[in-house]
Amino acid sequence: MTDKLIIFDTTLRDGEQSPGASMTQEEKVRIALQLEKLGVNVIEAGFAAASPGDFKAIEAVAKKIQKSTVCSLARAVKNDIEKAGHAIQSAASGRIHTFIATSPIHMENKLRMTPDQVLNRAVEAVKWALEYTDDVEFSAEDAVRSEIPFLVEVFDAVIQAGAKTINVPDTVGYSIPFQWGDRIKQLIDKVPNSKSVIWSTHCHNDLGMAVANSLSAVLNGARQVECTINGLGERAGNASLEEVVMTVKTRQDIFNLQTNINTEFIVPTSRLVSTITGYAVQPNKAIVGANAFAHESGIHQDGVLKHRETYEIMKAEDVGWGANKISLGKLSGRNAFKNRLETLGIDLDSDDLLNAAFEKFKNLADKKSEIFDEDIHALISDEYSADTAEIFKLISLKATAEINKKPTAQITIDRYGEELSEDSVGSGMVDATFKAIEKIVKSDSELLLYSVSNITTGTDAQGEVTVRLAKGGRVVNGQGSDTDIVIASAKAYINAANKILSKLERAHPQV
Ligand SMILES: [Zn+2]
């Protein structure tokens, strides 16, 4: 057994399947570059056959990424595998991840195939995939409810066909750690030539055990874990990358394994993913929650001050807390700004975009003395969202709040060069602002989520707002950032309305 644990990140595929978390191509590339910096071994960039947008996004990620392997998911269907193969063609290192369900309930009711047909199809799929890359991963969907003898038969056959990685997923999040570890152990013991492949696990968090199940699999021989940043993912999410990685690192005495993760990029990566998807991180979330390293009780604080290890098992700075160094200030010029973007892996496609972003940076620097990397990411998200779908643009906003008076908002918005103004009262300034905006944009959509978070600390920090709107089954996220949260809220609402009205193509549309 190798002493390396392979980290397979599926934030851009499984994570993207969270409601409303679908991303544009530019957003996927930006996250992929950050994942590469973080040091993940494999980036699952999407599901090429799902939509033309997702195909293009995988292709764009494959072109940019040099160090990590770029992977596309594909059903065990010829067309899916062809699309995946083409999407990863230009990758420095490309993988096809093909899957078929092996549980009786899925085979009978979903696939309507006999076990023999499933077995043959699995082998065929691996052979088709090998025409595009020699790095082929095979997954037995719903392995948790599949029969062990059948799994052994299928895995034996796909290994003989040339699969290099065998993934055992708990697709429905049903397993218990000791049981999951035992299943992995049995499979590795029973499958012939099991030592010639990497065993992988992919666990869902429906019972809150995705990380525990993944680690139990690792203790029983799995050497690849499929996970996502912040545990994002379908339903209750996937195993969280940061928790898996930090457990293995903190408990070397138990695991004795190395990952390739540069842990000081964990918090910045978590921030970027939550900015782009609009999924805020709960404050008490392990590793990346705002309170993960905060000691409230006096006894704890006293202990930590006297001797850190009394209450701390990890160092906050090791996972990137407090690492947000001031990167730029008011006097920084265009070149310094451009260099910083390059270091952050942000590549603006045109001089126009760069100039517009620099303009925004200067405005921000007037309001806020210290500009952090997180501020720059937020500014770029803002710039791109404004650039991609512009029916409406915020021109001016005046909102007032006074005790014992109804809050009011007056807003002026540009629609294709025409200035439109409206006002409204509301239960608060944000509510009044949204009502005034809606009078102009008439998006007629339902507000599903409104969330505010601060990008860095301090009262002059930028507030970042996500507004999630739904209309006719379509769900979009709008983002806005500003040092004033009412203005950030207005920007986010207008951004979401633009997306819903312009039908901006998401890489992987959710309908
Ligand atoms: Zn999954």
UniProtKB/TrEMBL annotation:
It catalyses: 3-methyl-2-oxobutanoate + acetyl-CoA + H2O = (2S)-2-isopropylmalate + CoA + H(+). InterPro entries: 2-IPM_HCS-like, 2-isopropylmalate_synth_dimer, AIPM/Hcit_synth_CS, Aldolase_TIM, LeuA/HCS_post-cat, LeuA_allosteric_dom_sf, LeuA_bact_synth, PYR_CT. SMART domains: LeuA_dimer. Mn(2+) binds at residues 14, 202, 204, 238. The keyword Transferase applies. SUPFAM superfamilies: 2-isopropylmalate synthase LeuA, allosteric (dimerisation) domain (SSF110921), Aldolase (SSF51569). Pathway: Amino-acid biosynthesis; L-leucine biosynthesis; L-leucine from 3-methyl-2-oxobutanoate: step 1/4. Belongs to the alpha-IPM synthase/homocitrate synthase family. LeuA type 1 subfamily. Catalyzes the condensation of the acetyl group of acetyl-CoA with 3-methyl-2-oxobutanoate (2-ketoisovalerate) to form 3-carboxy-3-hydroxy-4-methylpentanoate (2-isopropylmalate). This is 2-isopropylmalate synthase.
